[in-house]
Design brief:
The chain is of the alpha+beta class and 179 residues long. The protein folds into two domains: 102 residues; 72 residues, 3-Layer(aba) Sandwich (Glutaredoxin). The protein is 63% helix and 16% strand. Strands 2-1-3-4 form a four-stranded mixed β-sheet. A hairpin with a 2-residue loop joins strand 3 and strand 4. Helix 4 packs antiparallel against helix 5. The longest helix is centred in the middle third of the chain and has 19 residues. The model has no long low-confidence stretch (mean pLDDT 87).
Length: 179
Amino acid sequence: MKLESKAKNYAEALFNVASQSEAEKAVKDSLALVNSALKVSPEFRAFLLSKRINEAQKADAVKSALGDQCHLIVSEFLGLVSGDNLVKLLASVQTAYDAKYAEAMNFVAVTAHVTSHMSDDETAALKTSLETALGKTTSLHVNVDPSLIGGIKLRVGNKFLDASIQNQLDNMRLSLLEA
């Protein structure tokens, strides 16, 4: 079985178990915690990849090391999975779980690139407008890009929307060159 399909199956199973215990967000955060620990700690990575330590001992060690920060479902899951591509698998499981979580919770991440700093009221108004237009709950992150002449660029999930003045000028230029 390919790594991606295996990760999707694991993510689906994790989400189903988390839904039954109403711990979807906690499991999402725990997966992020484990993957960040894998990135920064070579010792933790070596521990999880070790063939000398059985899965039950790994689950117990993760529970005691991460404590309340890591949900029990994720601790137990770490005790069940193994393999040479474990680090890649866990990253893929997190990605698939995040997508499943966003779909189930009707949630989308939005990044806005603007020309200058926005006040809290302007940010709240933009967030409200986006939620109304998209029909989803949004997590809005605003980046200031002084190279923009004006307008806004949005990344909604994996889609890019460019309503910047530079883009409009480029489109006008192309249409004039084609005429």
